[in-house]
Queue: 2 jobs
Job 1
Amino acid sequence: MRLNSTPRDGELMSTSSFLKLTSSVIGIALAMLLGACATTPEPPADPIPLFASTFAPSGYPELSDYPEILEIIDESEDAWAAAGDLPNEARQTNSSIQTRRAATAAHATILLGKAAYIEPLVRPFSTLKALYSLVIKSTASFARRMTIGTVQFARLDDDPIPEVRQGPGMDLEAWEAELDQLAGTATRGTVRFLIDGPEFFPRLIETIEEAEESIDIRTYIFDNDDYAVSIADMLRERAEEVDVRVLLDGIGALLGTQVDPEGMPADFRPPISMPSYLERGSNVRVRTSGNPWLTGDHTKSTIIDGKVAFLGGMNIGREYRYTWHDLMVEVSGPIVDVLQRDLDIAWSKAGWLGDAAMLVRWMRSARQRADNVGDPVRVLVTRDHDSQIYRAKLAAIRRAQSFIYIENSYFSDDTILLELAKARRRGVDVRVILPADGNHAPLNYSNQVAINVMLRNGIRVYLYPGMSHVKAAIIDGWAIVGSANFDKLSLQINEELNIATSSPEAVVDLMERVFLADFAISEELDSAVDLNWTHRFAEFISDEIL
């Protein structure tokens, strides 16, 4: 198959569309910056204090805390609903779009204000650490990419690409011992893969309905579409009987206001703020993680009664339930205690006591509530100071002797590309599955640059039909899955959560139900993609920012 870089309808952006997107992003960023510098609206009668010395509030300010902004949004909606002689359906569509834009601008202003003024006060250590990490890692990554692109790949071009070797893979027992020193927390647990929304969400709903003590949800995006609202309604109802906590990311909460009204039922009006919707009139406790220097918490984990946990790539929303190809993992056993402690620390950090509360929580030992069952499994994370997932993936690729299978949405890390090319020259069978219809245009373009590098180095590349949001790899019988992409943010900057195991039963299940199944329905590329300057620009943006 030959992949032409000229987009068809519903596929990648044209050059002009990409330029429009770029200019729009720049314009939105400037507008958000001006909004952050604008005069703060007059506070309500019982304002939420903006200083770290006042700890009475239960969380950060949200959009619902600013009635003046809500009033402006309502007036905007009313005005658009009454505009012109448009048919009623068209008036509703325009009204919804304008309301969404106003809400997005307000959310963005609050987000930037929190990042600029509140984060340094409440989380001074985390803010400085994030800045240091961004500067050091960005500088080092840029220098490393220049060397890889101009020197190391050029040297590889002189080496022939051998046939795939037949033989055993790496010594998994020795590999796990190396991982004990290299990264991650070794523990035990049962592993069950839940593929796509029809498998995951009914199981999630079942456990929520059966919860007896607690429901803890930590997610990047909690959409405001009709399906996400139905999950929110269930949580509001269950909060009457059990403790319900929802931890959202600040940037993800902003993205969660981007629901497409065309895909919603005609009588559905999306909430302008999911944190407010979850909390208003209910016992649900909601916190929004801070975003120092606009870093984020990309983790997705749900823990029920401290005994069952889910983690992986799915946020809460309609596309994850019905449209996208994605993967979650249900785990039980001692691994749940590890995940619960990680969530508790993140929850403490997101409160008004910030770094101080995080430190106190970190010093406490983990609660042991889960059953002592399962096979060896390991928790791997990305933190701005500790890239466990990155170290483990690179080390595994360098050790590989038989095969490396990867499925991911966004692939822009040059170091991993180089190590995959080296592995292929050792005779390793290297295959990568990417989505044919990605959801972010700049990353789609960057993926195409990576595709050409892979093909030139003998790596087999497959395009999954539609959008695949799966984040999984199997390397010589070692499996790693979770929330992390193969890009700079996931591997070095944002908070991420993966698990890894060499358990034969789990690895075989992942191989058969994800990789072999997806290879069978995906199209293998047999020629390079036509590239132009927009692809190179998108690659630069992906490498340096995304």
Job 2
Amino acid sequence: MDVLKQITDDLQRRKEKALLGGGPERIEAQHKKGSLTARERIEKLVDSGTFMELGMLNTSDVKGVEDKSYGDGLIAGIGKVNGRPAVIRAGDKTVFAGTEGNVHIRKSKKIHEFAVKNGLPIIALNEGGGLRMPDGMGSDGISEKLFPREMLTLHRQVPTMAAILGDSFGGPTWEAVSSDFVTQLQGTCMAIAGPRMLELANGQILSPEELGGVDVHHRYTGQIDDDGATEEECINQLKTFLTYMPQNADERPMMRETLDDPYRQVHEVLSILPQKSNSVYDMRKIISVLVDDGQTYEYQRKFGKALLTTFGHMNGHVVGIIASQPNQYAGASGPQECQKATEFICLCDSYHIPLIFLHDTPGFRISSEAEKAKMPTKIMVWNQALALSTVPKISVVIRKSIGAAYGNMCGPGMGGDLVAAWPTAEINFTGPEVGINVVYGRELARAEDPKEVRKQLLEHWSFDSSPYKAAAKNLIDDVIHPSDTRKFLCQSLEYLLTKKREKSERRLASWPTGI
């Protein structure tokens, strides 16, 4: 037989075997629990025929397991996602439960460095059990396998996205929470360690979902930005998020073609805003009317629900929208909303995405619980992020904007390029009722006719909360007709996105991905 043919046939056999990862039995086990394999997930993500795998013939460096450890628990390479090149990595559960051995870690570092060097987004499809035993055991094992420095010092040089598609502990979790965007499959767990380790460590017995399921992260931690009922839904969310991101920090997000007139009148907003100033409504409806073609993608939609953080387009430009949500706590932000706003500002400023603020808030949610959650610190960290951000910022007061929250929503003097208000705006330090209760509470309690005294005090405290006084003193830039809001925003962006301002200074790029 031809020597060259023997050699190439041997290569083909090795690659065919490598495609099976941990073997047919492990693949079958993955399918039996209703899960896709790492390679099947990659196929769902990338454009057909574009994936170029790197490290396919890697195996564990532990002697005797080479034939059942192809890839060493990590499939990695480059592919196109909706025509855009990206670095892709997927934990392979069929090889040592997707745990991280010596070769796995070496491959992970190399593919990460390739992405940064070539300015390519990183997309991770995660499932796995963290550092492998015995590779990480002993003083030598753990000393050379601590947190990867390349991940800790990325500084948002390229967008990073992760999907938790199976139970993930250790490394896959570290990677996910360090990413710009995380989605999680319902029914999976993302945590430091698994339930078994937790039980051994302190006797706590919890199910995986109680420990780190999507409900835990949406309600308490904010460590995921979306979730999906199927793997395909999660993967599509990664694709959608990528459409709002640039390839890397040296580029702006791509413009999107639209036939939606940038000067379109938005008369619909007048029917969305209630007649009574204390009635609630859904701010999402106003956002949908304002943006191009009504298309948005909401970031952290189930966390900190009194504040909306949403991506959209205005006249083709990607924008980030931070908006009060009056149908949740009347639009009053608490600790979770502060965290959410800060992370969104850091994300948008790092990738040159202009920010639009839509106010309708009675102030911050104050309580004993909020104080225990470091509310003052969270308010000021939000303000610090706002002050350091250098992307164009446009602020519109829809209805209420009261007290310190007026500042956090990019009110006058807070770094906004333009601040406008609808004629329905109410702007003040606090509502007269609240102010009277604070200052005259005891006097009212002792009064013979509290109602009459309160009435007199309200007349005395009837400060002008309308936007006209601020507009008259040039403290805000304009009072606009609600129907002109889209025109105002699109026109403002047209004049703000000059060559000098189209890219931010990225002062927040080194801020943590979780505040």
